[in-house]
Amino acid sequence: MSEDVEHRVALVTGATSGIGLAIAKRLAAAGLTVAVNGLETAEEAQAIVHEIGGAGGRAEYFPGDLADDAQSHGLARAVIDRFGALDVLVNNAGIQKVAAVEELAPQDWRRIVAVSLDSAYHTIRAALPAMKRKGWGRIINVASAHGLRASPYKSAYVATKHGVVGLTRTVALEVAETGITVNAICPGYVWTPLVAAQVADQARVHKMSEEEVIRTVMLAPQPTKRFVQPEEIAEMAFYLTGEMARSITGATISIDGGWTAK
What we know:
With 262 residues, the chain is of the alpha/beta class. It has 2 domains: 3-188 and 229-254, NAD(P)-binding Rossmann-like Domain (Rossmann fold); 189-227, no CATH class. 48% of the residues lie in helices and 15% in strands. The relative contact order is 0.14.
């Protein structure tokens, strides 16, 4: 990796657990400065930043509730103000609620859309001017297999992830001649705290045991019958930051054990 890349700055939203943490650690290991976003207490954040920074590079914590439009936009601006650049933007933050559409409360719908879709719009909007001035940038949106396929009881999440895919493709076309690439990674079921928390909800709505839910619902779409690991997503995100990925833009990259091959 070149010295220029080693001195680039990345912002990873939702970077304190699961996929986001794995991506933050991978980018730090490559020598990037990583802005870590989450909702942790100061003590929790310090431990996470120490863990990420221990992989290499430099990490700093930037708190922010991405359900709030102003905080989403302000997050990217704060990173630019702090480091003078924002070269790699990873929109990873997301939340989930498993419920039939008529049982999904409007406030839950709004929060899911705000965190998973609206925040990506706001961070991209704030980051693009600095990337354009530099003539280089990487925007990576962590979408989902549910951005390409639907499942019952996940109306807000599926609608949101389809929106993330559409946003990715549109922005990629708008910045195609600027040296900026915009891509979406679409994981299947990744074993993260978010997925683990879904098991009980899925068992409730499907009226199954948790073991049955894992086998016959969650892993049923994935021909490999195994959960994707966060490090697999992180490695793809890292590749997309490199120069050899400069012609990959507007892409939806499935890492889903064959789910969308069907």
